[in-house]
Amino acid sequence: MTEPLYPVHGAGLGLRRTFVSAAAEQPPPAVDFWEIAPENWIGVGGRWGRLLRSMTERYPFVCHGLSLSIGSPAPLDLDLVHRIKAFLDQHQIRAYTEHLSFCSDDGQLYDLMPIPFTDGAVAHVVERIRQVQDILERRIALENVSYYAAPGQEMTELEFINAVLSEADCDLLLDLNNIHVNSINHSYDASAFLDGLPGERVIYGHIAGHYEEAPDLRVDTHGADVIEPVWALLERAYQRFGVFPTLLERDFNIPPLEQLSDEVQRISAIQTQQRAHA
Fold first, then answer.
1. Which of 175, 184, 218, 244 qualifies as a FRET site for 148, CA 20 to 30 Å off?
2. What single DSSP character describes residue 254?
3. Is the dihedral of CA 186, 190, 192, 193 positive or negative?
4. What distance separates the 2 farthest-apart alpha carbons in the chain?
């Protein structure tokens, strides 16, 4: 069976400055592609800029943005969008993704805030996505995010995500850890949620670790190893949608690169296993 055309393939890792030098000098064989936040690298020169360039010239890269604030009531930062476009083109980035959330109003909020699950919010977000895609001259993907409250809710999280993706005609960055975290925090079935998503829009996936604050509360920290229920959800996603590129995120308590490579290798092993059983 022919696999869908994805921008990258295999198992990836989010590139962090704590190990960028080691990754550039001796890239882990387990890592098939890398992900960076463009806001952390736009305008960076000198040694860091040369290190990044040395890697983007050799390996496939995707970008996962932090500051687009696609759901914000504030005007879209068009200057940022144009700078992102230049960065994507300069480094031949394979895909650009962002969070289906907002992080600014009159000023920067320094956190990812949930967008109200309403018809009005869908229309607002869709218009902004279309504008961004027109400027970038490429499709973008939005990530399902973790959230801890849903003020003014008129529809379910799943209905909201599907409406945005369909009406904007954009793609999905499927975060399995966020589904697990939300399923605990909001008492829903993670597998049923996964089954309701449009697999044909998935361009790659994320897995990560989180913090258990209480039996019924998980905090999405990206600061720990991936737990077994998230690995199991990844396997179910492959069974449901076919094997898609998947990347490990780690933002805090970052272990040595060799240890991260072990988790990336586990992604590869699951992908190989699921292909064999397809």
1. 244
2. -
3. positive
4. 51
Q: Is 3.20.20.150 the CATH number for 11-277?
A: yes
Domain coordinates in residue numbering, the chain: 11-277
Separation of alpha carbons 112 and 175, rounded Å? 15
Task: Name residues whose C-beta falls within 8 Å of residue 23's C-beta, 6 or more positions apart in sequence.
Answer: 15, 31, 34, 55, 257
Other Cβ atoms closer than 10 A to 95:
24
Alpha helices for 30-170 (secondary structure H):
46-56, 78-90, 119-136, 157-168
Pull the structure tokens for residue 213: 């604050």
CB atoms closer than 10 angstroms to residue 123: 13
Say if CB 229 and CB 177 are below 8 A apart. Answer: no
Residues 159-216 pLDDT 10s = 999 999 999 999 999 999 999 999 988 889 999 999 999 999 999 999 998 767 677 7
Taking the C-alpha atoms of residue 37 and residue 66, their distance in angstroms, rounded to an integer, is 7
pTM above 0.90, yes or no: yes
Q: Which amino acid is it at 11?
A: A
Residue 167 identity: E
**CB atoms inside a 10 Å sphere around CB 278:** 11
The residues of the chain scoring below 70 in pLDDT are 1-4, 102-113, 211, 213, 222
Q: Which of 244, 215, 211, 242 is nearest to 226 (CA)?
A: 211
